[in-house]
Amino acid sequence: MAMKSWASSTRVAKRDHSKPKAGELAYRKGDILTIVETGTGKGHYMARHNTTGEEGLISTTNVREREAICVDPSLSLMPWFHGKISGPEAVSKLLPVEDGLFLVRESIRHPGDYVLCVSYSSQVIHYRVIYKDSKLTIDNTQYFYNLLDMIEFYSKHKGAIVTKLLKPKEKEGTKSAELELSKTGWLLDIRELTLGGSIGEGEFGAVYAGDYMGQKVAVKNIKCDVTAQAFLEETTVMTKLQHKNLVRLLGVILHNGLHIVTELMAKGNLVNFLRTRGRYVISTDQLLRFALDVCEGMEYLESKRLVHRDLAARNILVSNEGVAKVSDFGLTKLDCKASDKAKLPVKWTAPEALKKEKLSTRSDVWSYGVLLWETFSYGRQPYPKMSLKEVKELVEQGYRMEAPEECPPSVYALMRCCWEAEPRKRPSFQKLQEKLERELTKHSPGC
Ligand code: ADP
After folding, report:
1. Which EC class heads this enzyme's classification (predicted)?
2. CATH, domain 189-263, list 3.40.50.2300, 3.90.550.10, 3.30.460.80, 3.30.200.20
3. How far apart are CA 417 and CA 95, in angstroms?
4. Contact 282, 294 (CB under 8 A)
5. Of all protein residues, whose CA lies closest to atom 25 belonging to ligand 1?
6. CA 244, CA 326: separation in Å to the nearest integer?
7. What 3-state DSSP class applies to 273?
8. Are the CB atoms for 109 and 134 separated by under 8 Å?
9. Structure pTM?
10. 78-168 maps to which CATH number?
11. What confidence score (pLDDT) does residue 332 get?
């Protein structure tokens, strides 16, 4: 029987296979291949070549998993964007002229507008891009929400300009994210994606359910180009992380801004999951399993010296099988200085992190304590009825939340350990995991 395996959809060829036998696929070292079936016999997959679109059998030993993308600030979704440079400067950058070579600059004469500069037939043509009613246009006919859209359109259609855009002139010091994503196998094909209904509302737009080559996926579309660039960093972090309790990235699509495609967590976020079911449906045992799931995901981040910085039940998603996974790596960082204090979620953030802007795995442990409280109170808002200012002041003075109703005392004791004022005194996720495992055996008869 054909099996679809979530984790294994994309592979990279380890060596050339240029003389295929009948039914086999030809490929070269480094080519990106998408597995379409794994149940095709021992040692073989049925795969599709991402560039040629051809399908055929490949040997499992000839391919490897995709590599993580280096978190590299020079990686840009808009490497062709050169900022405020003059017309003559743009011309000199586009020399020697090559048909279809292009860049975008900010207009000096008309602040707020852009100029698309394109090489064609030994000259450089400058198209003024007008910003009108929150949209961009060159010809008052074709309108775009952002520069990414505009460049995508004119790369496929000539439209009102002299030639299709063929080759970006990259700004010095930037690297094309598109190229890097495609080389490493993280760029997905929009034609394989079928979008379904909206399943959630994020800060930067709706999240949709979808289907990607037979796999159920969730798709976040970020239209604004500046935000898309910021999310690219979150995505590169995700390429490094693989754990059963972290929401898994399938890849990204560059179309209409940025589409981030992840595994579908059919039961939504943990807060809604708990609130809509409540204590008569969800047992303490199940709550403990959620707590352990999250703890294992966090222990993995801890082992990679990554700090999540926004751990809260709203950022935990539940799979169809009822497994809880950590999501929203938007703030996850190796370096632990809070660059934007205003953004920290006060009710979840450790006092030293709020005060000294010092974030660490141990401040994630504090947030985990709050998450435990949310879990055992079936999705209540922490510090009920207290303002952020009150929370900040009282917690600093030693105030801690009381145990949620009917919470096992041993679980409340864990929360209190996570809320030790002194970060060093808080347990590690590894220690927490051991304690939760012990707790779970107490609560699961027969285990
Ligand atoms: P934000 O932008 O506020 O961080 P997200 O965009 O990550 O939030 O998600 C918003 C909501 O969309 C989540 O609370 C959840 O209900 C839903 N959602 C996000 N990702 C997934 C997913 N992979 N599977 C199922 N639902 C999801």
Report:
1. transferase
2. 3.30.200.20
3. 64
4. no
5. 265
6. 10
7. helix
8. no
9. 0.84
10. 3.30.505.10
11. 62
**Given 2.60.120.280, 2.30.30.40, 1.20.1050.10, 2.60.40.2310, which CATH number is that of 7-60?**
2.30.30.40
Identify the CATH number of the domain defined by range 270-440. Answer: 1.10.510.10
- Do the annotations mark residue 220 as ligand-binding? yes
Question: Tell me: the pLDDT tens digits for 91-132?
Answer: 999 988 899 999 999 988 888 889 999 999 989 999 999 988
Give SS3 for 140.
coil
* Higher per-residue pLDDT: 202 or 324: 324
Q: Which of 288, 295, 283 is nearest to 418 (CA)?
A: 295
Give, to the nearest 10 degrees, the angle between helix 284-303 and helix 429-443: 160
Residues with CB under 6 A from ligand 1: 199-204, 207, 218, 220, 247, 262, 264-265, 268-269, 314, 317, 327-328
| Stretch (H or E) spanning 115 | strand 114-120
Residues of the chain with CATH 3.30.200.20: 189-263
